[in-house]
Structure formats: structure tokens, C-alpha cells
Specification:
CATH topology: Four Helix Bundle (Hemerythrin (Met), subunit A)
Distance between the termini: 59 Å
Number of strands: 2
Structural class: mainly alpha
CATH architecture: Up-down Bundle
Largest sheet: 2 strands, antiparallel
Number of domains: 1
CATH class: Mainly Alpha
Number of helices: 9
Strand content: under 5%
Radius of gyration: 20 Å
Shape: globular
Order of helices and strands: HHHHHEHHEHH
CATH superfamily: CDP-alcohol phosphotransferase transmembrane (TM) domain
Length: 253
């Protein structure tokens, strides 16, 4: 039995790996467009890579074609699309003029993405069930790409623009290697029944999304900003709750 399992894990399945390759290409395309100073296209490519990253795992599980090769290939693809590509985009777009401070921030983000992926790959299967430890690299990349895309669309400039880029880049990198917990929707049971109002809400949100597609950059940036901050809010609430409980215990007779 064990030999069969090992053999299955070592197999290479074409469908999920083709999807992973599309995600890898999107990350490479983002790098090329950043080098060509076409930052809006570069940012959009990061989100396209994110879609493929979601699809390859889902397809592998649905078709029962999961393998060790696919997991490693997906991780390498993530490093390019959500590690190297966003770091290079931010450097070429807003950090290049800061010299050492600029490439330091870009490298910190890239290095933290590598550490985040390595920690995720070596964690026990049930270690992050329901939650991610540290900001997931796709979400960190979405935060940077959403920021770049929004600023490019509106042509926003302000006095401390480069320092805002520097701060966001370091914040995203540090959040990836932190122990802050972030909600994971991987264990969501799509077959589970839901109340009728949830269905109505989903229809309404779908309609609103289609109506405001011209504001997609801001929506994506706002979404990933709130998600990146949600872990810290949750940590603060948990910390304050524990502190309050300790005080209550000490005061009780």
C-alpha cells in the first residue's frame, strides 16, 4: 500500500500543472512589463496569477491529481508570481529612486515571501487548518499590486509617495513572516446549507461588482488592505480579551 501511495505522489499530472504554468507565466509577464515600465499591466498580471493559483489546487483536489511534484511546482511558481514579481514591480515603480533604502525594502519583501512559502511547505498538514500563520504571499502580492494599479489609474502623487511605497512593501513582507493569524477559506464546505439571506446577499454583491467594474483597482486594493489588517485586529482583540480575563481572575475571591 505504501509503495502505491509514494508512486502516486511522484506522478506528474498535466491538468493542474498546466494551470500552474499559466500562473508562472503571469508572474514572468508581470516582471517583463515592470521592466518595460508598463506598471498597470504588471499589476494586472499579478491578479491573473492569483486566479490560476486558486484554480490549480482546486482542480487537483477535484480530479484527485494531487502530487508532491505539483505541490513543489506550485510553490516555485508562487515564489516568482508573488515573491520576485511584486518586489521588482515596487522597486522599478516607486523604490528605485531611494537607492539602498529602495532595494533593501524590495529584497526584504522577496526574502520574506520565500521564508513564508518555506514555512508553509514544512508545516504539519493540520497546523494551519482554518487559519494561515502570517499573511499569505498571494494576499501580500495583491496588496502591492492593488496599490500600484490604483495609483497608476488615477495618477495620484503626493509629497511622501516613495515613503508610502517603502512602508507598504515592508509591512507586507513583515506580515508574511509574522505569527499573526489570518482567516483561511480553504476548509469552506460548499455543500453545506446556508440561510436564504446569504443567497440574496451573494446575488446583490455579484450585481454590485459588475456595476462597479471600472473601480476594480480600488476594490482589490481595499479588499487586500482590509484582509492584511484583519489579522492585526484579530490579534488585538484576542490580546485584550485575554488581558481582561486575567484581571477578572485576579479580582475574583
Amino acid at each position: 500500500m505504501s509503495s502505491r501511495i509514494n508512486l502516486k505522489k511522484s506522478r506528474i499530472y498535466w491538468l493542474p500543472n498546466v494551470i500552474t504554468t499559466c500562473g508562472l507565466f503571469s508572474g514572468f509577464y508581470a516582471i517583463v512589463q515592470a521592466m518595460n515600465l508598463r506598471f498597470e499591466l504588471a499589476a494586472m498580471a499579478i491578479f491573473v496569477a492569483m486566479v490560476f493559483d486558486i484554480l490549480d489546487g482546486r482542480v487537483a483536489r477535484i480530479t484527485r491529481t494531487e502530487s508532491d511534484f505539483g505541490a513543489e511546482y506550485d510553490s516555485l511558481s508562487d515564489m516568482v508570481a508573488f515573491g520576485a514579481a511584486p518586489a521588482l514591480i515596487m522597486y522599478e515603480w516607486g523604490l528605485k529612486g531611494m537607492n539602498k533604502f529602495g532595494w533593501f525594502a524590495a529584497f526584504v519583501y522577496c526574502g520574506c515571501a520565500a521564508l513564508r512559502l518555506a514555512r508553509f511547505n514544512t508545516a504539519p498538514p493540520d497546523a494551519e487548518k482554518g487559519f494561515f500563520r502570517g499573511l499569505p504571499s498571494p494576499a501580500a502580492a495583491g496588496l502591492l499590486a492593488g496599490y500600484v494599479w490604483t495609483v497608476e489609474v488615477y495618477g495620484l502623487t503626493f509629497e511622501y509617495f516613495v515613503w508610502a511605497c517603502w512602508t507598504i512593501t515592508l509591512f507586507a513582507g513583515a506580515s508574511m513572516v509574522s505569527n499573526i493569524q489570518y482567516y483561511s477559506a480553504k476548509d469552506m464546505d460548499l455543500r453545506k446549507t446556508v440561510p436564504f439571506w446569504v443567497l440574496v446577499l451573494m446575488i446583490f454583491l455579484t450585481f454590485v461588482t459588475f456595476q462597479i467594474t471600472e473601480n476594480l483597482p480600488e476594490i482589490l486594493f481595499l479588499f487586500f488592505t482590509l484582509y492584511a489588517l484583519s489579522g492585526y485586529f484579530g490579534f488585538a482583540i484576542t490580546f485584550l480579551t485575554k488581558r481582561k480575563n486575567k484581571k477578572t481572575v485576579h479580582k475574583s475571591p
